[in-house]
Write a structure and sequence with these properties.
The protein has about 140 residues and is mostly helical. It is built from five helices and two strands, in the order αβααβαα. The longest helix is centred in the N-terminal third of the chain and has 24 residues. The protein is elongated.
């Protein structure tokens, strides 16, 4: 028995949609997390979307870096990912992560009391998660003049 052309087309389309759905479900839904506490990913200015995707994969936030790159290209956000330090819950989908990276890192307010020393400022910024401890004290004051 030979199938008609429209029937073959509908079957082919159904198979393509099913494979696409499985691809989306497996690769773009949140990666499974086991005993992970708020993965933190730092994106440096000028990093490619491929490098960012690899960092997310290493942090076990996404299953496939290639699928993430594909999603970012298709959504038009590949070149709009902003540098910064991002803390994730670990249960975000790839599209949610992409949305967060396109919005930019959350703004944090840190109160620095008048008369604080450089070491105290460094400690306050590190406690707020703005920088790593020792980063502020390692800065060369001559670069700010």
């Amino acid at each position: 028995m030979r199938l008609s052309r429209p029937t073959t087309l509908y079957i082919s389309l159904g198979i393509i949609l099913a494979v696409g759905y499985l691809f989306y479900f497996y690769y773009l839904i949140a990666a499974p997390q086991e005993n992970v506490v708020s993965p933190v990913v730092t994106i440096v200015s000028g990093e490619s979307v491929g490098t960012i995707a690899q960092s997310l994969k290493e942090a076990h936030l996404i299953r496939s870096s290639r699928a993430f790159v594909f999603l970012s290209l298709v959504s038009g956000r590949a070149h709009r990912l902003l540098p910064g330090r991002y803390a994730f819950n670990g249960d975000e989908s790839a599209s949610a992560i992409l949305h967060i990276l396109a919005l930019g890192p959350p703004i944090k307010q840190v109160l620095i009391p008048e008369g604080s020393t450089i070491k105290e400022i460094d400690m306050l910024l590190a406690e707020a998660g703005v920088i790593d401890r020792g980063t502020f004290t390692a800065l060369d004051p001559a670069t700010f003049v």
